[in-house]
Design goal:
Elements (H helix, E strand, L loop, with lengths): L4 H4 L4 E6 L2 E6 L1 H7 L1 H8 L3 H6 L5 E6 L6
Antiparallel strand pairs: 1-2, 1-3
Helix pairs in contact: 2-3
């Protein structure tokens, strides 16, 4: 699991968790574009995303095709 944008671009699919529940899935770019709490968590400086909601209790995880072998 990571919230590092440097690593998230390499994952084929992301799962964004809030309080242990998956609230969104998709690629990093899809989640940045469509999920304000995800964007706030991984970009850390996005004022618009921070205003959209709290990121307390959030986790981001991703997998690549290599991980699934």
């Amino acid at each position: 699991m990571t919230a590092s944008p440097l690593l998230l671009h390499h994952a084929d699919e992301m799962a964004f968790l809030v309080d242990g529940q998956v609230v969104a899935t998709g690629t990093h770019d899809e989640l940045v574009a469509g999920h304000p709490a995800y964007r706030s968590t991984v970009l850390r400086g996005d004022a618009e995303a921070a205003a959209a909601g709290s990121t307390t209790g959030t986790t981001t995880t991703g997998t690549t095709a290599k991980d699934r072998r």
